[in-house]
UniProtKB/TrEMBL annotation:
GO cellular component: mitochondrial inner membrane
GO biological process: mitochondrial thiamine pyrophosphate transmembrane transport
Species the sequence originates in: Komagataella phaffii (strain GS115 / ATCC 20864) (Yeast)
Protein name: Mitochondrial membrane transporter
Membrane-topology annotation of the record: Multi-pass membrane protein
Residue ranges of Solcar repeats: 13-106, 119-204, 210-298
Length: 306
C-alpha cells in the first residue's frame, strides 16, 4: 500500500493540516458539481410541489437543465444556493476529514494498547460513520438553506440572509434542522460505506504505486456504491427540509412522506433524481478525496522544508 495514503488505518495527520485540506477539498468538489446538485434537488422535489400535475415540470436531466436555463434567467441559475452550499461543503469537508483523522489515531492507539486489530474495512466503516455524523451536525443548517434556495423556481436569486430571516420569523430555529434525524442516519451510513468501499478498492491491487489514478477511481466507485445504497433517505430528507407548516402544509414525518411516495409513485419514486445524484456524487467523492490527499501532501512537504 502507498505510504502516503492518509486515510489508511493508522495514518496520522495533524489537525491544522486536516482542517485546511478538508476545507479545500469541499470547496473544490462543490464548485465543480453544483449544477448537478440543483438538477437533482429539482427532480427530488418535483412530486412534492406538483403532486396533482399530469405533466411534470421537471423530468430528466437534460429537460430540467434546459428548463432552468430558459425560464429562470440563464446558465448561472444552475448555481442557485451556491453560497450556503460552499460554506456547507467547506465545513463538512473540514469536519469530516479532521474527525476521520483524529478518531483514526485514537482507535489505532487503543488497538495497540490493548493488543487487538480491527479489520481494515471495518475500521474504515467505523471512522466514516462517525465522521459523517459530526460533519452533518456541524454543517446541517447550511444544507437546509442550500435546499431551500436551490428549489427556488423564480428568475431571481433568493439571498441566504433573506431566507434565514424568513425561516426564523415563520418557522423558528428548529427549521434549520428539519430532517436532521433522517440526515444523520443516511449520512452516517453513506460515509461509512464510502470510506469502507474506498479503502477496500484501493487495497485490491498490490501494485498500487504503479497506478496513478487509483485514488480518483476508488473514490468514484465508492461514491456510486454509497449513494445508490442510501438515496431514498436523501430524497426523504430533501422533502422534510422544504416542508413549510406555516404555508398550510400538513405536518409531515419520515413515515408520512414515505407512504405518500410509495402510494403516488411506487418504489421508483424513492429514486427520483438518482441519475444526476450519481453523476454528482461519484465525481464529488473522487474530487474530494483526491484533493484532500493532494493538499495534505503539499502541506506536509511545505512543513518539511519550513
Amino acid at each position: 500500500m502507498a505510504k502516503d495514503d492518509h486515510l489508511r488505518q493508522g495514518a496520522t495527520v495533524g489537525v491544522a493540516v486536516s482542517v485546511t485540506a478538508g476545507s479545500v477539498s469541499g470547496m473544490v468538489a462543490r464548485a465543480v458539481t453544483a449544477p448537478l446538485d440543483v438538477i437533482k434537488i429539482r427532480l427530488q422535489l418535483e412530486s412534492y410541489y406538483n403532486s396533482h400535475a399530469k405533466v411534470p415540470q421537471y423530468n430528466g436531466i437534460i429537460p430540467t437543465l434546459k428548463k432552468i436555463i430558459a425560464t429562470e434567467g440563464g446558465i448561472k441559475r444552475l448555481w442557485k444556493g451556491n453560497i450556503p452550499a460552499e460554506i456547507m461543503y467547506m465545513l463538512y469537508g473540514a469536519t469530516q476529514f479532521t474527525c476521520y483523522s483524529t478518531v483514526n489515531t485514537f482507535l489505532t492507539q487503543t488497538e495497540n494498547r490493548h493488543n487487538f486489530k480491527v479489520p481494515v474495512s471495518l475500521h474504515s466503516l467505523i471512522l466514516g460513520s462517525v465522521s459523517g455524523v459530526f460533519s452533518t451536525l456541524v454543517s446541517y443548517p447550511f444544507d437546509v438553506l442550500r435546499t431551500r434556495l436551490a428549489s427556488n423556481r423564480s428568475k431571481h436569486f433568493a439571498s441566504m440572509f433573506g431566507c434565514s430571516i424568513d425561516m426564523l420569523k415563520h418557522e423558528g430555529i428548529k427549521s434549520f434542522y428539519s430532517g436532521i434525524g433522517t440526515a444523520v442516519s443516511g449520512v452516517s451510513l453513506s460515509m461509512g460505506l464510502t470510506f469502507f468501499a474506498y479503502e477496500f478498492l484501493r487495497n485490491l491491487d498490490s501494485h498500487y504505486d504503479e497506478l496513478a489514478f487509483i485514488e480518483p477511481i476508488s473514490g468514484f466507485m465508492a461514491g456510486i456504491i454509497a449513494k445508490s445504497s442510501t438515496f431514498p433517505l436523501d430524497l426523504i430528507r430533501r422533502r422534510l427540509q422544504v416542508h413549510r407548516k406555516w404555508l398550510g402544509h400538513e405536518r409531515e414525518t419520515f413515515m408520512t412522506i414515505s407512504k405518500k411516495i410509495f402510494i403516488r409513485e411506487g418504489l421508483r419514486g424513492f429514486y427520483s433524481g438518482l441519475t444526476p445524484a450519481l453523476l454528482k456524487t461519484a465525481p464529488t467523492t473522487a474530487i474530494s478525496i483526491w484533493t484532500y490527499e493532494y493538499v495534505v501532501r503539499g502541506l506536509e512537504k511545505a512543513q518539511a522544508f519550513g
